[in-house]
TrEMBL record:
SUPFAM superfamilies: CBS-domain pair, Clc chloride channel. This is Chloride channel protein. It is found in: Endosome membrane; Membrane. The chain crosses the membrane at residues 102-124, 198-223, 244-266, 272-288, 300-324, 374-395, 415-434, 492-513, 519-538. It is a multi-pass membrane protein. Coiled coil: none annotated. Keywords: CBS domain, Chloride, Endosome, Ion transport, Membrane, Transmembrane, Transmembrane helix, Transport. One of its GO terms (molecular function) is voltage-gated chloride channel activity. Its main location: membrane. It comes from Carassius auratus.
Length: 811
């Protein structure tokens, strides 16, 4: 094909596209794609060495030495296609050089190995930090109640381990551990003991909460909250500078310990995902291929999310599935392998530290041995329904509270809010045994199956049940009376019911405050309490009516009829699933916590029921709701687009708007380009042939354009405001007196994604989701008509869903 408008006469097609596409019946008009005839390009031949007399050579900015080219501004979305293309080019260059010398071959091997080395370092660093957080949080939680005389750094359990004076009934009491009342007023019983310990408990809780919020507010505002909504947004391609920085890591690690120790209704498991991602981001700076490529960095962050869950629950496989199911936007097979390796290293590191002294990775690891019965699926499904209802209620209540905090004067006093909530939590938690203990200890207590050595009130059974009825006497005669509820169990039941209400209220208020706050443990605690209550009820029902057909065969002498701890575990899974909408990863995490394969079916039934019920009341998980509340440009892959709109309905400019801001490939000067940049806030500009012939040439990013012009003014001799800006491949003829031109074709994306005005929006949305686009251009018969950005799509989807489109805050 001979066309004077094509500058490269030596172009050779490397593929046989003619065999794939039949264009024999198609008439293509290139007349307007050819530059106007008054541009004399010497019949299409580029004179590469031609330039005006005594003028410098046109500057080519293709080299990577120009600092900032290819990077992104804060609160902008990355170009996934460009980043993946850069990585492919880098791989191709390394592969070609590796065939030329031994040094290049060794570099190629080290480059391939660097990813695994980075995963190893992330696992080691995250596991070590998680172990330190667990140890410090356990010690500071016990510090609210007393101190060890053998060494203040020992927590209560470690202090009494070596003591020979502990008794079975009072295993937590030893001479080496002193409460604050015993130290301050020298009493070991009476009202003075209770009042002083109550006062010190509240004081320590207020101190820890105050320090946490002050440190977050002063040094790292991004260290607050769970971090998972922002991690999901970052993994989708959004840039939030500083969110994964070193100061955020340091402050989040310290304040997470303080927040958990204060007794607030929050957990450390969610923030550990943020901590692991901070470790990954910091370590990425030591590896060039991850430092310079945002898409590659997000692959590492996906693996780090798996590491966070691995060290939080001691569940490496569950962590990988959590990253795949819940947070990751782009998860290739290579990332799956590396996530598994990093999660394994992190779990091994945490196991080596042994933070709880029980050779387990979590405080509430349990093992059940009693089989479950088929009819128990009914109460398990009921727990799933409760979990779904709790999840839907929690999301709506928490978002309403956060919106109230955001839109009223309450949000202007974060320190006061945290201190007041901590004060109320401590005042109401201390009198009740099950709210006074930490959430992890509570879950461990509720998961536990009562044995002969247990002295907990939850194991307060009696042989006669306090009754002389015939059925009870028959039960005792059959050897089943040892599991009849006694006064201790009844006391524990009403205390658990009260603790359930308090946990639900305080969790709604606490999540979203300006301290590190996870949601996994509080949600599991709510479900575990509900499950234990239902489990005890089912157990007593089966024991008292064991002769009826429905319960016949459930109970046998010397064995448990029902395991209430199993109900607590199923309830915990149901409530966590209702809030987060996890399914597969949730079941695997709970399976790894219990180590029992036979309980997978109850967990699956509860998790699926919980998700169905919660989805029927609201499609969003708590993380997606917070993403929408904060206005992040996150395009949810699970949300279907069902509306019959076209690209022309969404593109800008719309009717009544000013015309689209474009650059021409050779008609504009440096001054005109700089004025266009100053007068607009767009992230990029389409490049067309001319204003009279708006045929699309490419797309250039605003940041690349600004950096290139600044670099040209500093380093290219003779560049002034009247210097022409060229996006052409050929050098146009210039008069000898004209200033030198600035050639910017190297920063031009010559293959931007385009759609026609008649393209259905459901296809456009799919393109944005699957390719991670930040914008696409709308054309009609080759002419540029408009542009659709990710923010335009999110606003359109919000409008179609009867939501406020202006809630999308960022580009």
């Amino acid at each position: 094909m001979d066309n004077g408008g094509f500058c490269d006469d030596n172009y050779q097609s490397g593929s046989s596209d003619d065999e794939l596409v039949d264009i024999s019946e198609v008439t293509v008009d290139f007349s307007e794609d050819v530059p106007p005839l008054d541009r004399d390009y010497s019949a299409g031949h580029c004179k590469e060495e031609w330039r005006p007399n005594n003028s410098p050579k046109l500057m080519d900015l293709l080299d990577d030495t120009v600092s900032g080219i290819g990077t992104y501004e804060d609160f902008n979305t990355i170009d996934w296609v460009r980043e993946k293309s850069k990585d492919r080019d880098r791989h191709r260059e390394i592969a070609n050089k590796s065939k030329q010398s031994t040094v290049a071959l060794l570099f190629s091997i080290s480059d391939a190995f660097s990813g695994w080395l980075l995963m190893l370092l992330i696992g080691l660093m995250s596991g070590a930090l998680a172990g330190g957080i667990d140890i410090a949080a356990h010690w500071m939680t016990d510090l609210k109640e007393g101190v060890c005389l053998n060494g203040f750094w020992f927590n209560h359990e470690h202090c009494c381990w070596a003591s020979n004076e502990t008794t079975f009934q009072e295993r937590d009491k030893c001479p080496q551990w002193k409460s604050w009342a015993e130290l301050m007023i020298g009493v070991s019983e009476g009202p003075g003991l209770y009042v002083v310990n109550y006062f010190m408990y509240v004081c320590w809780a207020l101190l820890f909460a105050f320090l946490a919020v002050i440190l977050v507010r002063a040094f790292a505002p991004y260290a607050c909250g769970s971090g998972i909504p922002e991690i999901k947004t970052i993994l989708s391609g959004f840039i939030i500078r500083g969110y994964l920085g070193k100061w955020t890591l340091i402050i989040k690690t310290i304040t997470l310990v303080l927040a958990v120790s204060s007794g607030l209704s929050l957990g450390k498991e969610g923030p550990l995902v943020h901590v692991a991602c901070c470790c990954a981001n910091i370590l990425c700076h030591f590896f060039t291929k991850y430092r310079r490529n945002e898409a590659k960095k997000r692959e590492v962050l996906s693996a780090a999310s798996a590491v966070g869950v691995s060290v939080a629950f001691g569940a490496p496989i569950g962590g990988v599935l959590f990253s795949l199911e819940e947070v990751s936007y782009y998860f290739p097979l290579k990332t799956l392998w590396r996530s598994f390796f990093a999660a394994l290293v992190a779990a091994f590191t945490l196991r080596s530290i042994n933070p709880f002294g029980n050779s387990r990775l979590v405080l509430f690891y349990v093992e059940f041995h009693t089989p479950w019965h088929l009819l128990e699926l009914i109460p398990f499904v009921l727990l799933g329904i409760f979990g779904g209802l709790w999840g839907a209620f929690f999301i709506r209540a928490n978002i309403a509270w956060c919106r109230l905090r955001k839109n009223t004067s309450l949000g202007r006093y974060p320190v006061l809010e945290v201190v007041v909530v901590a004060l109320l939590t401590a005042l109401l938690a201390f009198p009740i045994e099950y709210t006074k203990m930490s959430s992890s200890e509570l879950i461990s207590e509720l998961f536990n199956d009562c044995g002969l050595l247990d002295s907990s009130k939850l194991c307060g059974y009696t042989s006669n049940g306090g009754s002389t009825s015939g059925s009870v006497n028959a039960t005792a005669a059959n050897g089943l009376g040892a599991r009849l509820a006694g006064p201790g169990l009844y006391t524990a039941m009403w205390q658990l019911a009260l603790a359930l209400v308090l946990k639900m209220v305080f969790t709604v208020v606490t999540f979203g405050m300006k301290v590190p706050s996870g949601l996994f443990i509080p949600s599991m605690a709510v479900g575990a309490i509900a499950g234990r209550l239902l489990g005890v009820c089912m157990e007593q029902l089966a024991i008292r009516h064991h002769e009826q057909d429905i319960f016949r065969g459930w109970c046998s002498p010397g064995a448990d009829c029902i395991t209430p701890g199993l109900y607590a575990m199923v309830g915990a899974a149901a409530c966590l699933g209702g809030v987060t909408r996890m399914t597969v990863s949730l079941v695997v995490i709970m399976f790894e916590l219990t180590g029992g394969l036979e309980y997978i079916v109850p967990l699956m039934a509860a998790a699926m029921t919980s998700k169905w019920v919660a989805d029927a009341l609201g499609r969003e998980s708590i993380y997606e709701a917070h993403i929408r509340l904060n206005g992040y440009p996150f395009l949810e892959a699970k949300e279907e687009f069902r509306h019959k709109t076209l690209a022309t309905d969404v593109m800008r400019p719309r009717r009544g708007d000013p015309p689209l801001s474009v650059l021409t490939e050779s008609e504009m000067t440096v001054e005109e380009v700089e004025r266009l940049i100053a007068d607009t806030t767009y992230s990029g500009f389409p490049v067309v042939i001319s204003q009279q012939s708006p045929r699309l040439v490419g797309f250039v990013l605003r940041r690349d354009l600004v950096i290139s012009l600044e670099n040209a003014r500093r380093h290219q001799e003779g560049v002034v405001s009247m210097s022409p800006v060229l996006f052409t491949e050929c050098d146009p003829p210039l008069s000898p007196s004209a200033p030198p031109a600035v050639k910017l074709r190297s920063i031009l994306d010559l293959s931007p994604f385009t759609v026609t005005v008649h393209t259905p929006m459901e296809i456009v949305v799919d393109i944005f989701r699957k390719l991670g686009l930040r914008q696409c251009l709308v054309i009609h018969n080759g002419r540029l008509l408009g542009i659709i950005t990710k923010k335009d799509i999110l606003k359109h989807m919000a409008l179609m869903a009867n939501r406020d489109p202006d809630s999308i805050l960022f580009n």
